[in-house]
Design brief:
By secondary structure, this protein is an alpha+beta fold. It is built from 2 helices and 2 strands. The protein has a two-stranded parallel ribbon.
Length: about 100
């Protein structure tokens, strides 16, 4: 499935990528993680990536909760291991 710009009236442009049943998020007001997640999802949406081949890797803590809010396959890994884990995924499956 390719991402597309959504122009339906009454929906958020990122609803296609969000698990709306898990919203509102639990991050503290003003922490910025919601803004970062929104920017990340807009970048994914505009990139045209195949969502069936896109994975989100997250660590622990507040930022790790981001993977739970998106409609992508995801891996929740131990602290400090998200980048090495994601690199291993890419090496194992370059597509």
């Amino acid at each position: 499935m390719k991402t597309t710009e959504i122009s339906r009236i009454g929906t958020h442009p990122l609803d296609e990528l969000l698990r709306t049943d898990r919203l509102p998020h639990i991050w503290c007001p003003g922490c910025g993680l919601g803004t970062i997640l929104g920017a990340t999802l807009r970048a994914i949406n505009k990139s045209g990536l195949d969502l069936d081949k896109t994975i989100m890797v997250s660590g622990i803590g507040c930022t790790g909760r981001a993977a739970g809010y998106v409609k992508l396959d995801s891996f929740h890994v131990t602290h400090g291991r998200a980048l090495p884990f994601a690199t291993g995924l890419k090496f194992a499956n370059p597509d």
